[in-house]
Automatic annotation (TrEMBL):
Taxonomy, superkingdom: Eukaryota
Pfam families, per the entry: Methyltransf_24 (PF13578)
Name of the protein in question: O-methyltransferase
Gene Ontology MF, one: O-methyltransferase activity
Length: 224
């Protein structure tokens, strides 16, 4: 197996291993087939103490893509306990430092204050390199992403599927040409993504997408 693509301290790599492992242990105990609808309070109650972190191989791919895109302004729809955010922030900080004239910024979104608090605790353990990079917006992303985005290089859609299209539409006016969007679980949760795909695949749209064979499906969408 190839070594981790991350330029990171052994401490940070070990923190990430540990967070992913906690997430997977939790996920193995969830009865996915009997979950209530994603827009219900009951669903939120079940998910309030869950990581549901993006799989480690997907996080590593995203970090790699971000380094290649030289992305310095990144939006994350769905932050939870902040695991994927660490990868985004590390890449944004390293890209900014390589460019020399910008500061990396990750706009992270989480509607549950208790989850946001745990995310901040995890980030504080991640070390100096990501310090000051994450702009955490607590609340419903349909409100928190409505202003102050700047020019966006990359959007991660790791959110309940009914929120994917609203998030994309809020960020769309801010994308730079060549911006990239990654959406998770696009095959497994395909029916939930129908509206997003109809929008992205429409002939007049400026988006193009490809589905990659990661677990559950991972879509890469490029803004023309
Ligand atoms: C799949 S998890 C994100 C996992 C995270 N990206 C990671 O890898 O660690 C999705 C998160 O989106 C949050 N969420 C759901 N609806 C939201 C909304 N309307 N605005 C902001 N966050 C929301 C949930 O509370 C949940 O923590």
């Amino acid at each position: 197996m190839a070594p981790s693509p991350l330029t990171a301290t052994p401490q940070l790599l070990s923190l990430l291993e540990n967070l992913h492992s906690q997430s997977l242990t939790q996920e193995s105990k969830i009865e996915w087939t009997s979950l209530p609808g994603q827009t219900s309070n009951e669903f939120d109650n079940i998910m309030r103490d869950k990581f549901i972190a993006l799989d480690q191989d997907k996080c590593e791919l995203i970090y790699h893509l971000l380094r290649s895109l030289n992305a310095t302004t990144i939006v994350e729809a769905g932050t939870s306990f902040g695991v994927s955010t660490i990868y985004l922030a590390l890449a944004a900080a390293q890209n900014a430092s390589r460019s020399g004239n910008t500061k990396g910024r990750v706009i992270a979104t989480e509607k549950e204050p208790s989850k946001a608090e745990i995310a901040q605790r995890n980030w504080s353990q991640a070390g100096n390199e990501i310090e000051g990079v994450i702009d955490l917006r607590i609340g419903d992303l349909r409100e928190t992403l409505a202003s102050d985005l700047g020019t966006v290089d990359f959007l991660l859609l790791d959110i309940w599927t009914p929120l994917a299209l609203p998030a994309l539409k809020l960020v769309e006016p801010h994308f730079r040409p060549g911006a990239m969007i990654i959406a998770d679980n696009t095959l497994k949760a395909g029916s939930g993504y129908e509206e997003l795909f109809a929008y992205v695949d429409a002939p007049e749209s400026r988006f193009h997408r490809v589905t990659m064979p990661y677990a559950g499906g991972l879509d890469m969408i490029v803004y023309e």
